[in-house]
Amino acid sequence: MKPRLIDKLLLGLVLILFIGIMVVCALTVTGVIPQEDVSAFLDTVMSDGIGYGYLRIGIVIVCAVLAVIAIKLLFTSGKPKEKEASNASLLSSDENGAAYISAASIDSMAQKYIKSNSRIRECSSKVGIDADSRVNISLKAIVLADTNIPELCEKVRTELKEYIETYAGVKVSQIDFMVVNTYSPTNASRLN
């Protein structure tokens, strides 16, 4: 889950205060801040003067707010509000939840489309999904030797884009189609 800006700011505040406390502790232990100064500060805070009562109340309020912030960060950071699978595309989202389609499902659909083309002998595909749920497809194919390759590439890219957008309900931003070899009965190499 990607943390929200407010969570980042609250976490930064808590960490800065924690680091400050740790620095003061380390400087006191090493003798840079004399122990007498720390004792004098604590005696002043704990004294019975009227103004010091407000100081103690302020310290208690600050500590309580920091504790609430820490507890909020502890429980909200583990709650998945966005898609859990990093390789899935958002189909829809509303107050009832969200619907996603995985890259594997889109890859399966692409393979089904590719197998329906009689000019393509073999094809491997790789599907990637970017941060804004747009799909990128990379195809490597072996085609029949007597194929008009530029025409086939354009046809596959156009029709596959329409097919995926229509049936998967996602936007396809890019389709790369590479012909790695041609197939003829004398040239029976396999796709790697």
Layout of helices and strands:
Blueprint: H1 5-29, H2 35-46, H3 50-76, E1 88-94, E2 97-102, H4 103-115, E3 120-129, E4 135-144, H5 149-167, E5 172-183
Parallel strand pairs: 4-5
Antiparallel strand pairs: 1-2, 3-4
Helix pairs in contact: 1-3, 4-5
Outline the structure in words:
This protein folds into two domains: 5-76, no CATH class; 88-183, ANL, C-terminal domain (GMP Synthetase, Chain A, domain 3), CATH 3.30.300.30. The model is unreliable at 81-85 (pLDDT under 50). It is built from five helices and five strands. It has a three-stranded mixed sheet, covered by helices on one side. It has 192 residues and is of the alpha+beta class. Helices cover 50% and strands 23% of the residues. The radius of gyration is 31 Å and the shape is elongated. Helix 4 (103-115) packs across helix 5. The protein starts with a helix and ends in a 9-residue tail after the last strand.
Report the average pLDDT across residues: 82
How many strands, what sense, and barrel or not for the largest sheet?
A: 3 strands, mixed
What is the CATH architecture term of the largest domain?
2-Layer Sandwich
Give the assembly state of these chains.
single chain
Provide key terms for this protein.
192 residues, alpha+beta, GMP Synthetase, Chain A, domain 3, 2 domains, 3-stranded mixed β-sheet, two-stranded antiparallel ribbon, 5 helices, 23% strand
